[in-house]
Specification:
The protein has helices at about 15-35, 35-40, 45-55, 55-65, 70-90, 115-125, 135, 150-190. By secondary structure, it is mostly helical. The chain has a domain at about 15-90 and about 155-190. Keywords: Membrane, Transmembrane, Transmembrane helix.
């Protein structure tokens, strides 16, 4: 038995089904808390990543202690915490009074771009054709399969949680090495080695 559970690189099926069950309601609640669906995109992926980071503990709570709603409760708790944090980070409008107007500055005169550079700028702005291999092959996919959105959201959230796990693990190893080196230097300085 491991003291610290390892996190798999791929999202487990239980987490994917959890995201599948809660994704629509989570998006809706995030949109209500944020005010619109555009800003909900800033909240609910972070919530899913937080749940993914604690998924093993939540499964253990459900299995060992019979708390079947542990993941649901944690999801609600993280959603409210993330929404409060998101609201606190928002920039609100501030009223300003201008006491003295600045002098009007003349705009710089620029030459009109040549036709070649204008065409290049238009290409950069619009980009190449809006078709991809995925869109071309979409007609060959079976319509009976599960929609990819919950699996994609679960995979992205799991990836972010896995990267945070790896980062924490590296930091813990570096701190442990520093502590061991400091202890060895202390023992050497006192002549015990």
């Amino acid at each position: 038995m491991e003291l610290v559970t390892r996190m798999e690189e791929e999202a487990p099926d239980g987490y994917v089904s959890f995201v599948d069950r809660h994704l629509v309601s989570l998006r809706f609640e995030s949109a209500q808390l944020a005010g619109d669906a555009w800003h909900a995109e800033e909240i609910y992926p972070e919530v899913l990543s937080d749940v993914a980071a604690r998924w093993h503990r939540l499964e253990l709570l459900a299995r060992w202690f019979g708390r079947q709603s542990a993941a649901d409760d944690y999801l609600r708790q993280v959603l409210s915490t993330r929404a409060k944090r998101w609201r606190a980070e928002q920039i609100y409008e501030v009223e300003m009074v201008v006491l003295k107007a600045d002098a009007v500055i003349e705009p710089l005169k620029t030459e009109a771009p040549s036709t070649q550079s204008a065409g290049l700028a238009r290409y950069k702005r619009t980009g190449p054709g809006r078709s991809s291999i995925g869109l071309k092959q979409a007609r060959f996919l079976s319509p009976l399969r599960r929609p990819p959105t919950p699996r994609a959201e679960a995979s992205i959230a799991w990836f972010h949680a896995y990267e945070a796990y790896r980062r924490r693990k590296r930091v813990a190893v570096v701190i442990a090495l520093i502590v061991v080196m400091a202890a060895l230097m202390n023992l050497r300085a006192t002549g015990q080695i």
